[in-house]
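Apologies for my clumsy wording, but can you show me some protein sequence, whichever is easiest, together with the matching C-alpha cells, please?
=====
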Amino acid sequence: MIVVADRIKNIREQHHLTQSELARRLGITRAGVNAWEQGISIPSTQYLTALAELFHVSTDYLLGIDSTATIDISGLTDEDKQVVLTVVKHLRQKNSQ
C-alpha cells in the first residue's frame, strides 16, 4: 500500500498540484487524497482509473506492479521526439557508469 501512496503523492507533486486541487479535479475531498497519500486507504478502481488518465500513467504504475513511468509525447514533432530519445539515452548511459 505504501507504493501506491508514494506514487500518488510523487506524481501529484510532479504535476504541481495541491491535494485540494487534485481532490477538486476528482470530485472528492482533500481528506480523501490525503488518506491515499498517507497509506490509510487506497483509491477505488474508479479513482485509480481517473488518476491514471489525469496523469497519463498506467494503473499498473500507480499500483506498483510496473515501475516503468511513461512520458506523453503526443503533439511533438518527429524532431522533438528524437531530441527526447537522445536525452533519455544520454541519461541512461550517464547513470549506468
The domain at 2-63 is CATH 1.10.260.40 (434 Repressor (Amino-terminal Domain)). Residues 78-96 form the longest helix (19 residues). The mean pLDDT is 92. The radius of gyration is 16 Å.
